[in-house]
Prior knowledge:
401 residues; alpha/beta; Cobalt-precorrin-4 Transmethylase, domain 1; Methyltransferase, Cobalt-precorrin-4 Transmethylase, Domain 2; Rossmann fold; 3 domains; 7-stranded mixed sheet; 5-stranded parallel sheet; 29% helix; transferase; cobalamin biosynthesis; Precorrin-6y C5,15-methyltransferase (Decarboxylating) subunit CbiE; S-adenosyl-L-methionine
Amino acid sequence: MNVPKAHIDFYLVGIGNHAVPKWDDAILALVQQSTVFSGGKRHYELVKPFLPAKHSWIEISGKMETLIQKYKTIHLPIIVFVSGDPFFYGFGNTLQRLLPHAKLKAYPYFNSIQLLCHKTKTNYNALKTVSVHGRDWSALDSALIDRSELIGVLTDAKKTPAAIAKRMLQYGFDNYSITIGEALDGNNEHIEKLDLLACTKKEHDRLNCVLLKQITPKDKPFGIPDHAFVPLPNRANMITKMPIRLSTVSALQLQNKGVFWDVGSCTGSVAIEAKQHFSHVKIIAFEKRTECETIIQQNTERFSTPGIEIVIDDFFNLNLKDYPTPDAVFIGGHGGRLKELIHTIHQLNPSARFVTNAVKESSTNTFIEEFTKLNYTISTTVIQVNEHNKISIHTAEKRNK
């Protein structure tokens, strides 16, 4: 019995950078039988000589919504040519997001990071792959903070190998080598391994990817010594002490959180400790002292903690909707306006988790009273470090209805 072929809306054909595409017979037959094709400008230059004389081409460029509308006017299967693997930071993921009911069939090729590993005979069992192509630094920052031994990076025109190397050196990740693969599989293919400093001084072909390989381990202390931080001028004790800091980070329960606000960040010690252990979290450090901008930045570099956004301004003067909404908040300072601060942030996210460290009884009373009114559950831990005052670590968590 003949089984009818399943209808396919998009055939996703992965290609390399070869002058002559390396297609098997099934793909060649599919291409010859089709009339509607799509891909980037570079893809068209590679495949055009092999397409049927009568064909139409839909270029992938500009806004994706406009492209999808063009696709919707086509009632034939579309062959989409993509670089490498369509589901590796690829167009297949975009189609699934924007056309979730479309029927897809993939013919993948090696992605560029795989190719670079193959060509350099690199064991990539433990490879951590990230993309900064059209994205921010967060994925790379997280991989570095987590001390990943081998990192594959998809680059772009701004986040080049040189820019990557500069950022790594800025934050003290000088314990990696960098291997750059340029125009892989093409006539101008070039692969070189450099130290980071040498890489900062070189330009590379725009079509490149990178392997970062750890040469030596880099320490990552569980708890940073207080004296190691750059302090406020003449106020070395103006810092959340390490035992308090670690208990505070624990109370924030950041393992399942996405955005953390450190309000009244001072030297950045809590934000930095949190980022060290929960590298995936987007952290914003708010502080109104102008001198703290340099101090926090110096500390993030000193402790190899990239990715913390520093905002220097009076918190109450900011349009807080300009920032990602927090699901965890540490109140390190409030300028005597704790009640207002609580309600301001609560309005942004009524389910956020709040933590504060209180010395004064008035702060403790305000925190407990206001969050009790808002139907939060309050828990408290009291810690005393050496001869310093006792600190009450208060946590407010929204009660389950």
